Structures are given as structure tokens and as C-alpha cells.
């Protein structure tokens, strides 16, 4: 009897151990063969769904720098200096935006000024070439301005307006009522006006960034005759001015011949009237 009881207890223990080993209910045999890919979720958690719709981060923008300056130098040959400047401009692909010439009587010199635009990447090389063209550098000032933040701001506003325009166009295609159509078109006109304004600002900034500006002034000293201080020069100038005044007066008188003719007729009529009155008084006496 004791042997039977011991056998029964041993059978129960063995059965219990077998149940614990098979707790996976049919999956225990596969547990040892599972890989990482078998347990990774095929869909992200619901809490991360917003990540799918988040806009992509804005791309990094290279620094936007506007470079400008001015240089002034003395030269013995104005024409040669100008040719050297224009030749250097052709080499770098620049151009003259404004050209001025002046006779500076206070400084007693003839000045020539060229406002030029140069590709920003070639600004330094062009500046060295121009500096070498002068016999004596009087002044040189170079300024830089960082407009990166302004460029990004204008670009962002432009992209937002274009996205809004696209959305309005989609709504316009779906609009069924005339009132809705008119309202959407009014909004579109406002958005397009903003787009044109922002695009203009962006184009202007891009041009300022791509092409640096430089004001080049070169001059040569005047002689005593040229600057108007010599006696002979002043004498010749006085004679020339007097002759010019006489010629202008002569032609001015000729130009007014209708006035002179009318005045002569009026004087003639007045004199005839005076004569008649005198004749009547004589007869009455």
C-alpha cells in the first residue's frame, strides 16, 4: 500500500513538471528559434502617429552676405585708369551701373566715378586689380552685411503664400456657389499680391548677395589754367561770356519781333489820335 501511494505521488510530481514546461501552450517548441524581427512591431504605436504628419525640418541655408565698398585713388592718366577698370570688369563678368564725371574746383581736380557690380566670388580679386591701378590710394572702405535671417524670413513667407494659393485653387475648383467663387477669387488676388511682393524682395536680396557693389573714384590734379585761377584763362572766359550774352540778346530781340511789330502799330495809332486832337483844338481856336 505504501509503495502504491509513493508511486502515485511520483506520478503526480512528474505530471506537474510536464505542465510547467508546456506553459507556452504550443509555442514552447518555437521559443528557442525566435529572432529580433519576429517580435518587432510592424506598426508604430498610436502615440507616435503624429510623427508621420510633421513637416520636414527646413534645410540649412548658407550664410547670405552683402558686400559693398568704395575706393578712391589718384592717377596721372584718367583715360588709362578708366580703361583698366572696364577691362577688369569684363574679365570678372561685372558691369557699370552708373558713371559720373565732375570738375572739383574746391579740391582743384577732375574726378571720375564708376559705380560697378561684381560677382561676389570675384570681389577680392577685382579689388586687388583696381588697387594696383592707382598711383596713390586716398581711401578704401569695404563693408559686409549679414542678411541670412532676412533671406530666410522672406523665403518662408513666400513659400507659405504659395501653399495658401494652392489651397485656394483647390477650394475654387470645388466651389459650387457664385458667392463662394467670388470670395475665393478675392482671397486669391490678395495672396498673389503678397507673393509678387515677397518674390520682388527675394529677387532684390539675391541680386545684392550675388553681385557686390563698389564705387570707384579716380582723379587727377588740374593745372592753373584748367582750374580757372590763371589771368589768361579768366580773360578768355570773360570775353567768351560777353560774346555769348551779346549773341543771346540779339537772337532774343529777333525772337520777339511780333511784340515789337504790335508795339509799333500801337504807337502809330496813338500818335495819329494825338495829332487829330491837336488839329481839332487848332480849328476851334
UniProtKB/TrEMBL annotation:
InterPro entries on file: DUF4349 (IPR025645)
Keywords: Membrane, Transmembrane, Transmembrane helix
Domain DUF4349 residue range list: 63-271
Regions crossing the membrane: 243-270
Full protein name: DUF4349 domain-containing protein
Organism this protein belongs to: Mucilaginibacter roseus
Species classification: Bacteria, Pseudomonadati, Bacteroidota, Sphingobacteriia, Sphingobacteriales
